[in-house]
Amino acid sequence: MVIDLSHLKADFPVLSNGVHFLDSGASSQKPIPVLEAMDRFAKTSYANVHRGAYKLSVAATDAYEAARGRVAGFIGATDPREVIFTRGTTTSLNTVAFGWGLEHLGPGDRILATEIEHHANLVPWQMVAKRTGATLDHVPMSDDFRLDLDAYEQKLGPDVKVVAVTGMSNVLGIMPPVRKISDLAHRHGARVVVDAAQLVPHSPIDVVELGADFVAFSAHKMLGPTGIGVLWGRMDALEATEPFEGGGEMISDVTLFEATWADIPHRFEAGTPPIIEAVGLHAAIDYLESIGMEEVLQHDRELTGIALQQLSDLPGLKVQGPLDLEARGGVISMTMDGVHAHDLATILDDEDVAVRAGHHCAKPLMRRLGVAATARASFYVYSTEEDIDALVKALRRASDLFGVGT
Amino acid sequence: MSLEDLYREVILDHYRSPRNKGHLDSPAAVAQGVNPLCGDEITIELGFDGDRVSEIAVDGQGCSISQASASMMTEAIKGKSRAEIETLTRRFRDMMSLDGEADLELDPERPGAVLGDLEALQGVRKYPVRIKCASLGWNVLLEALGNGQRASS
Predict the structure, then answer these.
(1) Measured distance CA(A155)–CA(A151) in Å, rounded
(2) How many angstroms separate the CA atoms of A281 and A30, rounded?
(3) Is the full-model pTM beyond 0.90?
(4) Residues of B in contact with A373 (CB under 8 A)
(5) How far is the C-alpha of A230 from the C-alpha of B50, rounded, in Å?
(6) Which of A12, A277, A319, B149 has the fewest CB atoms in 10 Å of its CB?
(7) Catalytic option among A172, A347, A348, A361
(8) Could you list the residue range(s) of the whole structural domain that residue A342 is in?
């Protein structure tokens, strides 16, 4: 019996028209309490932050900084100053790649990413490697869809300065052992950067326990709004990072020729930050914690187990990811023999089943899997067994239409 | 409009058994196009006999609509002059555009008489996100003929 969260569905108005929304891995839906919190704040307390001496600005600043504290508590950060608000995971990762990487990488240094990374934790490192003369290397995926940790250990060495790894693959659903990866990296003095865009929304997380130096995630995948994300960095790692963007809010003093930086975290938050969005993220965390992150993970995992079981009966269908639930989240990538992923998605859409089809911003992984694209179903708190039934029914229609297995 | 109108048997047939697939020994013109959003790829090679396309080969990978459309296109343009291909391209684009019904110049009494198998792609225009799939091969063709824009959309 799956943990019953079906009562939550009423909080998500967009789901009331009967869509089987299985694309939360791309972006999640927003519950009424999040929408109302943003609406209320905008109507009663909105102004720019950290600027005005007037009451509204103070109220807005309080709300913005309260959101920072809420995030810190949610992810186990010991100091709210370690929480930096960005535009999203991509900006967070670019902040590390350019802000830290340009300072600390040079010829002879190695950047160790993985074959399974989202482009957001790969392309910035390619750019920084080019600029600094550092080389880029990759931890391979083994045939059981897990990161090859033996290969990882062999690739580590004193020249590896940074390890870039996902906390949960947006294609395979696996959750690599970040703690172990971090401990091994730290033995060689390397920094560890975790793309936690999928992990944080779907799993309890304690950044101290996780052991990495930087953790990046987005609000919009965790019931919050678009336009805001988080970069958490351990204080010593942030102190070793230069601001990636210059502008207002991030300075201590400016002359015509130079500037000094504001304190952490503000030096990393140039320009007017996403203020209403921070309030929305705060409300999203409240909502998630009212469910409980253990329950969120368990619910995703139970649905994944049910789906994997049902998908195994479908002709020509291959799950591009592990079939066991160990260290795995609610993301299932599929291919069907003789049916391209885009055709699958069109047919599924005809049955009101919304899945993502394509390369999922992980083209190197697609090549490794030997596929051009996959169709991906991903679950969240509002997902139900009915959604899975609809998915399976629609997949059967696809295999019938294309004559798979006949 | 139902899925069965989109995935007509003739489309699935071209998808499963693409015509003129492969490469020419010595192509006179080559162009390649990709759709970076979905990863569909098509390469077209042409051989000419005077003004006419005498040989065509297509290679690529992607969804049924992109690959079937390219396959059908090769059959439709083989042996045609540049001017005839331009007319065909215009008709195909009309067929793909949402409001193009009036200009289609198709003969409902004689299905296939004007655009051949390509007429089976009429259903695509009801699925706007798939129009770029059906158009990819044509864009690559225009590039190979030297009068198109970059084929990547």
Answers:
(1) 6
(2) 10
(3) yes
(4) 38-39
(5) 62
(6) B149
(7) A361
(8) 6-28+293-401
| Residue A156 shares a structural domain with residue A226 | yes
Q: Are residues A84 and A134 in the same domain?
A: yes
DSSP state of A140: P
Test the B interface: residue of A346, A365, A402 with most B CBs within 10 Å: A346
Q: How far is A356 from chain B (nearest CA, A)?
A: 11
Whether B7 and A366 lie within 8 Å, measured CB to CB: no
DSSP summary character for residue A100: I
Q: Are A256 and A347 contained in the same domain?
A: no
With an 8 Å Cβ cutoff, are B64 and A343 in contact?
A: yes
What residues of chain B lie within 8 A of the CB of A357, using their CB? 38
Phi, psi of B141 (to 5 degrees): -60, -45
Q: Does A400 touch chain B (CB under 8 A)?
A: no
Q: Is A361 a catalytic residue?
A: yes
Task: Specify the fold of B3-144.
Answer: Sufe protein. Chain: A (3.90.1010)
Nearest to A139 by CA among A128, A150, A124: A150
Structure tokens at B148: 């198109």
The total of structural domains in chain A comes to 2
With an 8 Å Cβ cutoff, is A367 touching chain B? no
Residue with tokens 């975290």, as numbered in its chain: A265
Q: Is residue A125 part of a domain?
A: yes
Chain B residues close to A394, C-beta within 8 Å: none
From first to last of its 406 residues, chain A has per-residue pLDDT tens of 578 898 999 999 999 999 999 999 999 999 999 999 999 999 999 999 987 789 999 999 999 999 999 999 999 999 999 999 999 999 999 999 999 999 999 999 999 999 999 999 999 999 999 999 999 999 999 999 999 999 999 999 999 999 999 999 999 999 999 999 999 999 999 999 999 999 999 999 999 999 999 999 999 999 999 999 999 999 999 999 999 999 999 999 999 999 999 999 999 999 999 999 999 999 999 999 999 999 999 999 999 999 999 999 999 999 999 999 999 999 999 999 999 999 999 999 999 999 999 999 999 999 999 998 999 999 999 999 999 999 999 999 999 999 887 6
Write the CB contacts of A261 (distance below 8 Å, at least 6 apart in sequence).
A243, A250, A251, A252, A267
Residues of chain A with Cβ-Cβ distance to B16 below 8 Å are 338
Same domain, A125 and A208: yes
ipTM for this prediction: 0.85
What percent of chain B is modeled with pLDDT above 90?
Answer: 59
Q: Which of A289, A316, A341 is the last residue of a domain?
A: A289
**Nearest residue in B to A341, CA atom:** B63
How far is CA A228 from each of CA A134, A217, A281, B55, rounded to the nearest angstrom? 30, 9, 8, 54
